[in-house]
Amino acid sequence: MNFSSSPPSFGPGFPNQRDTGIVDDTSTTKEDRFWRLSRTATFAVIAVVLLVSLVIVKPAAPDKITILTGPEGSGYHELGKRYAASLRNLGLEVEVEATDGGFENVKRLATGADDTVAFAPSNIEEVFDDSVDTSHLVSLGSVAYEPLWLFYRAEVRVRRISDLAGLRVATGAKGTVVEHIARSLFELNSISDQVVIQPLDGQTPGAVAKALIDGEIDAAFAVGLPATPVIKDLLSDEGIGVLSFERADAYQALDPGITKLVAPQGLFDLANNNPPEDLFLLSATTNLVTLDSFYPGAVPLLLRAATEVDGRRRIVIPGERFPNAHNVSLPLGRAADRYYEQGVKGFSKILPYKVTRWLNHLGFVVLPLLALAVVLVKIVPVFVKIWISIKLTGFFKRLEKVEKAHAAGEDRSPLLAELDALDRDSATIFVPRTSLPSYIDFRQFLHDMRERVSQT
């Protein structure tokens, strides 16, 4: 089909829009309407994306976490309360949940407790058998020493662990760190079958302390800092003695979960010189444990809280600061590893957690969705152009059939009817500016073809 045989002139009654620059008012109105609709659709899509992203889809970063601690009044529970106060100041809400102790904490984490962290002894992985799957748990590092105390009634002579043989001893609730260390000490001293261990299920450290003071038991193990209320009360009670573990170096060498601590003379009360001499204590190293899926952006906050809480300790090892990556048996979490290597980075260093939480959500969710929405809207004109191209190709093919039929000498009446149908069909379609040249060419060829058929 040789459309170039006729000059590109619209002829009488069909102004040449290429020469005059005049665009049909109806086409212009349709195009303006189309672009207004396109812009409206763009804003509507963006609004929907923002609504879904900011209101319906919550940020991956938690606005609240749970800390599993230990029994009410225990060292873990008091530590958890200090963490909660520090984290709230940093913008993260915390629920402190009392539990039976470190072993229960790990069991609960192993079942997949979301947005939860827990205190546990550093050698926790060595304690559990295959019945508890710890493969998806990670440590955020060691965060504290929790001294082990052995209190006894003053009238009972206790100078070594072996002196507990035949006495009524409270070792802590089953599954707690204190109970685990106490039983380990009994085994090391070969008196496991000689100690009368008192059942304490459901009893708080305060109730145990009262039982010791009232003479219902002869000795009791406890874990916690000197400032822990129960420990503080027992240290100040003249009727209660506290054991200095003179063979602490040996215990530390024999049990990797035990660390030797020294409370210097007068540390607890300088005015009354309490303790009257250096007090040797044993300690487990407390780890902060969580799932490997825990939100990494909250890890620096937890470790910053650990740093602040560590500053309140009263029993220290020279040169040792918490948190750190020492005494960790579980794999160290990647976010914690970065923290120990690089410290706090980026906006987290200067902005509150609540702000960085939404900034992260904006960067990882909202902006990509908005970009996708804008791209999808921008594609609409491309599809319109393709659709117009397909329509014009169809019109040109119909016009080519008319030309071939005319060249073959067929009756002109049906050919003119087809040309009129083409005129009507092509006159009603919307044509964007980018497709106007092709559309004008088609209309010119249609006009020329009608003249040729009419004059035959």
Textual characterization of the structure:
Helix content is 46%, strand content 14%. It has 456 residues and is an alpha/beta fold. The chain folds into 2 domains: 3-51 and 379-454, no CATH class; 64-350, Periplasmic binding protein-like II (D-Maltodextrin-Binding Protein, domain 2, 3-Layer(aba) Sandwich), CATH 3.40.190.10. Strands 1, 2, 3, 4, 5, 6, 7, 8, 9 and 10 form a 10-stranded mixed sheet that branches. β1, α3 (75-89) and β2 form a beta-alpha-beta unit. The chain is rod-shaped, with a radius of gyration of 41 Å.
Characteristic terms for this protein:
456 residues, alpha/beta, single chain, disordered N terminus, D-Maltodextrin-Binding Protein, domain 2, 10-stranded mixed β-sheet, 2 domains
Please outline the helices and strands:
Layout: H1 17-20, H2 25-56, E1 64-68, H3 75-89, E2 93-97, H4 102-110, E3 116-121, H5 124-127, E4 137-153, E5 168-170, H6 177-188, E6 196-197, H7 205-213, E7 219-223, H8 229-236, E8 240-242, H9 248-254, E9 259-263, E10 279-291, H10 299-310, H11 334-342, H12 353-407, H13 412-427, H14 436-454
Parallel strand pairs: 1-2, 1-3, 5-6, 5-7
Antiparallel strand pairs: 3-10, 4-7, 4-8, 4-10, 9-10
Distance between the termini: 18 Å
| Rg for CA atoms | 41 Å
- Please indicate the percent range of residues in DSSP E strands (runs of 2 or more): 5-15%
Helix-and-strand structural type: alpha/beta
State the CATH class of the largest domain: Alpha Beta
